[in-house]
Amino acid sequence: MFEKVLFPTDFSECNLKILDYLSELKKVGVKEIILIRVINLNRVTGIAGGIDIEEYIESEEKEAEKKLSELVEFLKAEGLNARYVKPIPAGDPVTEILKAAEEEEVSLIIIGSRGKSVVKEILLGSVSEGVVRKANVPVIVVKFELVEKGDSYECRRIFPKMFERILYAHDLTEHSDKVLKFVKYAAKKANGSVTILHVIENDKTDKLEKIKEELNTEGIETKVIVKKGVPHKMILKVAEEEKSTIIFMGSRGMGLIQSLLLGSVVDAVVRHSKIPVFVYKG
Fold first, then answer.
1. C-alpha–C-alpha distance, residues 88 and 241, integer Å
2. Which range of residues forms the domain containing residue 53?
């Protein structure tokens, strides 16, 4: 189900920390990792004079090829098939990542997030949020805790096992139903438990009990929690209370303008969660 993974990288410390989860990814069947480094032309477009775009791209390509080759060798040494997207794409990161995901026919995208909440990122959308909104395959957004270390910070995992305690946020729609097969697969492969959470908007919660019975029949320890409140805030609150190691969610796939006008629970959870978030639009 997750055999072929696309891993976008910017070579930052937090991004490369995702590789700490290799053993967890192997548990859920990952066999091949395709790396992609996008030369972000959004950073240089519109800057007045002084920049030779072709020279800039050539310089970035050389550095990227060296680092990607090193990562490929590391992943192969860990027993995984690995390669990187060639030629090194240049342009809008979200567009290039989604293009590669489609061309490579990957089964999962795993991407890091800086977790910023500044106005610019909320308005323009981070790369991870853009990928979540538009991807046609499951996406895991990995988060890390920033811990002060001297005059700087380092990234640390809050929990060592990604799929040990799954929080399955269910809003009683077909979008959430489609996530069940991934929840079941990950929980069985990683011997994890599942907490099904519904933030109540109506009293029809029989569906959740049926899902619980189905998972229990598969030998997966499962419980149901129903809460009242603002959906994204309650999801994050319960994740913390339950010491969840990952949140699984379904997405309606709203575009940027619609999500800004109406608000998106998925966007808010991805932006503010301290633990990895699995999203499937379906």
1. 43
2. 4-156
